[in-house]
Specification:
The complex is a heterodimer of chains A (166) and B (521). With 166 residues, chain A is mainly alpha-helical. Chain A contains 5 helices and no strands. Chain B is mostly helical. In chain B, the strands form 2 sheets. Chain B has a two-stranded antiparallel ribbon with strand order 1-2. Chain B has a two-stranded antiparallel ribbon with strand order 3-4.
Chain lengths: 166, 521
């Protein structure tokens, strides 16, 4: 999940004949995605007669993406292009953790708890966070959402932990 | 002509619909409330509210606010979404004028002269002209939609699957040609989107495709999930990289003297007119949308001006023209969506997503079967523009204060709000995780200079393209030349090929880049 930064090897890893590392890596990744999709749809039925099977369109788009990804890679090798931009780990990591925490806790713990918890985890993603105001804003936001979603918008959400309700 | 008036009449009747509301507090008394106008108003307000937040573009705003419309009846939901869209656009211009951080690509050019005006203490007139220009453009394009709607629908009904497929190809090619950056990468993103749309069960055979026995994937990737991940979460993560606080140079003076002078009005009137015309045309073209319109309008004004050196130093035409073009294009881009059922850009793709969630399949049939929906939406566009003019000018002070909300508090709030929103769509925790994955994917794409907007467009068009391709080939008994032998389809394909060749020709590419470079110089 939070391995986005690992996509960014240092420039020195790439051989010197790669002139546009950004496109080179980007293209390779697309090729990998396309290959994965082709593998994942390989068990689907292909054309029978002149009607499409379930696997025809996915394979078509997969092959197309494979070609395009390869083309982007080639462009990355031969044309002078941008170097890899720097990936930061702090923001992506804590935002992902906050999202994961919300997804895992919403069912058992209810909205009040999970909204507050993921707010605090997400806040770790910035170095500028001041904890006192973060707590106050988090509490206000949680209260606001607790009113907005079930009452104003009519979307039923469980508010409190399951073990308290029972 | 008579048709036109009766259609618009129906639209306004839908918008002005009153619902009897009997709150228990009043003891049986009921108050008539204009529900749809209210929804339009709330939409425009909330849209501006979120759109004003720096670094959050129009697409992100609409994506984030999608869930709050799910509980409404379809007509109300779409009217509210349209309101959110205009509000978000106007909010974007406010940020670019006051903070020099364009919230979205469409208002990059507005920032050029708008921020200079604000620095000279003329933020008021700049904001007012932006609103007036948008309103005028909105009025013109509303009429245009009403006029073009019916005939285009008739044309659409003559389309067979082959024509539909070719039209979608044309739309995607347009999106590539008019987009910023590398043509090859944009096409790759579209195909990636098409591939993603294949996940889930096949419509015809019911076979499960690429879903790895994960029950949440059996229905396909949720559209709202992907959009919120790619635009909501990814933008947050990217903004965190930038450090959030550093480059905010908020204009500190109080915004005073809202009304533009007579000279301002005289200077900007022709610019507004030209911007509206240019924007309306570019908006109808698939793939065009608001971004290219505002760039083109700004370039045109600069070329026509007797004093081009004033541009970039606070010329009011430099605000008036792109803002009008922006809004005109935003509205006319509803034309291909409502008549042909084909979204011309990423925001319209989001509208398709919203319609699908309400069980409406956009296209010519909707125009005939649910006229009150289509015409109500068209009428609400005009009302929405009027509201922006009326509410936003007096509320500029509030928007300015919102701009001062520090990013360290804003981003966790957005994370939580989006998470709840995504969860509430299907009550599925898995959707939230998927959105997170797409957030990381979006962050990676941005880092490698791939644009996520074409991906979204491809994802929406994927199932439609597959279906029409299948049908066309079935009808022609497997003969792939059908796309080139039916005259209408052949014409569309020829235009696509021509455009694609033009786009990769070095001469035109240079020109295209020039238009976009304008903003950076």
């Amino acid at each position: 999940m939070s391995d986005a930064p690992s996509h960014a090897p240092e420039k020195s890893i790439l051989p010197s004949w790669v002139k546009g590392p950004q496109d080179f890596i980007g293209g390779l990744a697309l090729v990998a995605i396309a290959a994965f999709a082709l593998w994942a749809s390989s068990d689907l039925q292909g054309m029978h007669g002149f009607s499409f099977g379930a696997g025809t369109a996915p394979r078509m788009f997969g092959i197309l993406l494979l070609g395009l990804g390869a083309a982007v890679t080639v462009v990355g090798i031969f044309t002078e292009g941008a170097t890899l931009s720097k990936f930061h780990w702090r923001g992506p990591l804590f935002v992902s953790l906050a999202i994961l925490c919300f997804a895992l806790s919403i069912r058992p713990m209810g909205m009040i708890f999970s909204a507050m918890a993921s707010f605090l985890i997400a806040a770790l993603g910035s170095t500028e966070t001041l904890w006192k105001e973060t707590f106050i804003v988090g509490a206000c936001l949680t209260a606001g959402c607790a009113l907005l979603f079930p009452y104003a918008l009519g979307l039923p959400l469980q508010m409190w932990p399951t073990f308290l309700i029972r | 002509m008579g048709d036109l008036f009766s259609n618009l009449g129906l639209g306004f009747a839908t918008v002005f619909q009153f619902v009897q509301w009997a709150p228990p507090l009043l003891g049986g008394m009921s108050i008539p409330i204009p529900i749809n106008i209210l929804l339009c108003l709330i939409g425009a307000l909330v849209g501006t509210l979120v759109g004003v937040l720096p670094g959050i573009g129009t697409i992100a705003t609409v994506a984030m606010l999608l869930p709050i419309t799910f509980g409404l009846p379809p007509v109300g939901a779409l009217i509210m979404l349209a309101g959110i869209y205009y509000g978000a656009q106007y909010g974007g211009s406010t940020t670019s004028i006051l903070v020099n951080i364009p919230g979205e690509a469409g208002s990059v050019v507005t920032a050029l002269d708008g921020f200079q005006m604000a620095k000279q203490g003329r933020a008021g007139p700049a904001l007012a002209i932006a609103a007036i220009g948008s309103f005028f453009a909105g009025c013109v394009s509303t009429v245009l939609i009403a006029v073009l709607g019916a005939p285009l629908t008739k044309l659409a009904l003559a389309f067979g699957p082959a024509e539909y497929f070719s039209l979608m190809v044309l739309g995607l090619i347009f999106a590539v040609v008019l987009a910023k950056g590398s043509v090859l990468k944009a096409i790759a993103m579209i195909v990636f989107g098409l591939l993603l749309s294949m996940v889930g069960s096949d419509i015809e055979t019911g076979a499960s495709r690429m879903s790895f026995n994960i029950p949440e994937l059996a229905d396909g990737l949720g559209f709202a999930t992907v959009a919120m991940g790619l635009f909501g979460f990814a933008e947050i993560i990217r903004n965190l990289d930038a450090g959030g606080e550093e480059d905010r140079q908020l204009v500190q003076q109080k915004v005073t003297g809202l009304m533009p002078t007579k000279k301002d009005m005289k200077d900007s009137a022709p610019a507004i007119l030209r911007g509206t015309v240019l924007g309306s045309i570019l908006g109808i073209l698939p793939g065009g949308g608001a971004v290219i319109a505002s760039f083109a309008a700004y370039t045109l004004e600069k070329k026509l001006s007797k004093h081009p050196e004033r541009f970039g130093r606070g010329a009011i035409e430099g605000v008036a023209a792109p803002e009008s073009a922006n809004n005109a294009a935003a509205q006319t881009s509803f034309i291909p969506l409502l008549t042909l059922g084909i979204p011309p850009n990423a925001v319209m793709a989001l509208m398709v997503g919203a319609m699908t969630i309400h069980g409406i399949v956009p296209g010519p049939q909707v125009m005939q079967k649910q006229p009150e929906l289509v015409w109500g939406m068209i009428a609400s566009m005009w009302i929405g523009n009027l509201m922006l003019l009326v509410i936003n000018l007096p509320m500029v002070g509030i928007w300015v204060r919102l701009l001062r909300v520090p990013y360290r508090l804003m981003f966790p709030s957005i994370v939580v709000f989006c998470s709840i929103g995504i969860y509430s769509v299907n009550n599925a925790p898995m959707d939230v995780v998927l959105a997170g994955v797409f957030g990381l994917l979006g962050y990676w794409l941005i880092k490698h200079d791939f644009e996520p907007a074409p991906l979204l467009l491809g994802m929406v068009l994927g199932p439609l393209m597959e279906e029409n391709l299948r049908r066309a080939l079935l009808i022609s008994r497997g003969d792939a030349t059908v796309f080139f032998t039916r005259p209408l389809s052949a014409t569309l394909m020829a235009i696509s090929a021509f455009l694609l060749i033009l786009a990769v020709l070095p001469a035109l590419r240079k020109k295209r880049d020039e238009v976009f470079v304008e903003s950076e110089s």
